Amino acid sequence: MCGIIGYTGEKQAAPILIKGLSSLEYRGYDSTGLAVIDHKHSPYVLKAAGKLSNLKDSIGNKIPDGKIGLGHTRWATHGTPNKTNAHPHTDCTDDIIVVHNGIVENYLEIKKELIDKGHIFQSETDSECIPHLIEEYIKENNSFEAALTSTAKRLQGANAVVLISNNKPAQIAAFRIGYAGGIVIGYGENEMFLASDLAAILPHTRKVAYLSGNEIAFVSPEGPYYIELEGNPIKKSPSIVNYDPLSAAKGEFKHFMLKEIHEQPESMMNTFRGRVKFDRKAVELETLPYSDEEISEIERIVLIGMGTSLHAAMVGRIWIESLAGIPAEIDNSSEFRYREPILGPNTLVISVCQSGETADTLAAMSEASNKGAKQITLCNYPGTQTSRIAESTIQIRAGVEIGVAATKTFTNSLSNLYILALYLGFKRGNITQSYFQKAIEELAHVPAMIGSLVANQGQYVKLAQKYARYSNFLYLGRGINFPLAMEGALKLKEISYIHAEGYPAGEMKHGPISLIDENMPVVSLIPQDNLYEKMLSNISEVKARGGKIIAIATEGDQEVNAKTDNSLFIPKVSNLINPLLMAIPMQLIAYHMGVYRGCDVDQPRNLAKSVTVE
To answer: From residue 123, how far is each of 84, 87, 88, 591 by CA, in Å?
Structure first.
């Protein structure tokens, strides 16, 4: 969730950049930096480790001169948080100056290629390969614009990049690929602003446009022009943002829920920052207080939660047993303390509670404390009550979630549970180093995959038009996808007020099959995993009884496509991380059904964001 601010115009850039960074500091505080180009076309780059105050102290009263510049506040994914790894980064000639938010999945391949061509790198980051790659493409074709499009096409993953060049002394360029964190462009009088967050530019202008995925912007004080990655021009009409907190926070989206669904590529990256070391293929969980010996002595894990958090815990149970080799169970927090649970010092209780204040989960945690169990809690906010009870807190880092229905807090809870399971499995020797490293490599691709899923909204609009009149839905899944079926049904109930039930598909013949007819749409979660053939049989059973089938399947699965009424597809991934992608169609089905039915999707009736009473 790195913060980016850019300015070009008639004023001194540095004070504007520093003020913008102040409003963006929540997006990263590992390090900060800024760059300006003065009237002599000389670049000035200043960086500091730690918080923005350190950068301010290093500048002091010597404000750098220049009317164009960039600022960045970093939350690290690659390389130690220090001054060298801080942004901005430059090429060999200090001509191209870049700030970046995202993960360059293929940076090692690019870096090796560039080193072979004589480029010298200063940092450990994936970001530094970007200015060097632009420099190399400029050498090849002598065109700045062509070099940018070539670079954008070459980078894999979810990435937002903003840059300035000594040879373009009044122009800021930006591109967004893989639907990484957004770039908003502010229009002023003979000045322009770019930022990763609307709040950073609202003090200067309310006239804005948004850079969509796979688009490039070239911004000068007179205004911007936009192109697609293929070079075709794009026309954007700026809109006026009402200067009130809700409108500002909602940005370009009609509802907070839709905004938060779209934020999931970036919020997923925030989960990884500082924990998953993609360069070293390692996981570091510094907040865990347990020694390797204590981890090896854990005999049993109990996961607890409520609602969406319970569904995340259900997936976490499977990950922990598969990866860590520890017997695990799940329980609804409201039932846990009433059944006299058997706990002890070698039992680890993991509570999932995005608010950190859910009354039933707090009561269950108190019961675990009274019985001497170890405790880890996952929550979205520091200093919450769950954090005060547990020995260790894993912040899920989803950012503020205003929509009542959990979206990004769910996927971030999942990703943290997966990272935790990998960590425990590796520490206990239950998975090999090769498996561990491959799992980390795969995680790097997930944000971009989520970005591709949230970008494809049209199919869900059509689905809502076709199915929103139905009163009952059945969601079916097997194995690790059964909790996702429950989550999908819960989302539909919450947002559209349609009755829905999530079932393990093997249970269908034990009762629910009697309900299936032409008035019962069935959402079938059927990725190409180890239970694929069994799910195909379930689809055939539904089809034989006249049920309408909506399948969530793996890309390219023509057999499922032929057997179902409607098919939605997710990218092919390993079996265990299917839930990270499967969550997205569940959310989008519910959202568009609710919108089509005229429901208040941000504040569904009778629901509250945090249930603080039993």
So the answer is: 6, 10, 11, 42
Sheet with 566-570: strands ordered across = 499-504, 472-477, 522-526, 549-554, 566-570
Mark whether 2 is an active-site residue.
Answer: yes
Judge whether 97 and 131 are in contact, CB under 8 Å. yes
Both tokens of 1, joined, read 């969730």
Contact assessment for residue 502 and residue 512, using Cβ atoms and an 8 Å cutoff: no
For residues 352 and 350, what is the distance between their CA atoms, to the nearest angstrom?
7
| Residue 3 three-state SS | strand
Which candidate, 537, 539, 568, places its Cα nearest to that of 554? 568
- Of 207, 438, 543, 609, the active-site residue reads 609
β-sheet bridge partners, residue 160: 101, 176
Instruction: For residue 519, give every residue at least 6 positions away whose Cβ sits within 8 Å of its Cβ, in sequence order, or none.
Output: 470, 471, 472
Q: What is the pLDDT of residues 533-561, one digit of tens each?
A: 999 988 888 888 888 999 999 999 999 98
State the helix-helix crossing angle for 52-59 and 13-24, rounded to 10 degrees.
160
Q: From the candidates 2, 129, 379, 599, which is the catalytic residue?
A: 2
Which tens digits make up the pLDDT trace of 292-327? 999 999 999 999 999 999 999 999 999 999 999 999
Rounded Cα gap, residues 76 and 91, in angstroms? 20
Say which amino acid occupies 194.
Answer: L
Q: Would you call 92 a catalytic residue per the annotation?
A: no
In the chain, helix, strand, coil percent, each to 5?
A: 40, 25, 35
How confident is the model over 224-247, as pLDDT tens digits? 999 999 889 999 989 887 655 555
Residue 494: closest CA among 408, 604, 363, 341: 604
The residue behind tokens 């002598």 is 142
Bridge partner list, 99 = 162
Q: Which two tokens stand for residue 164?
A: 């300035």
Return the pLDDT at 248.
Answer: 60
Does the pTM exceed 0.85?
Answer: no
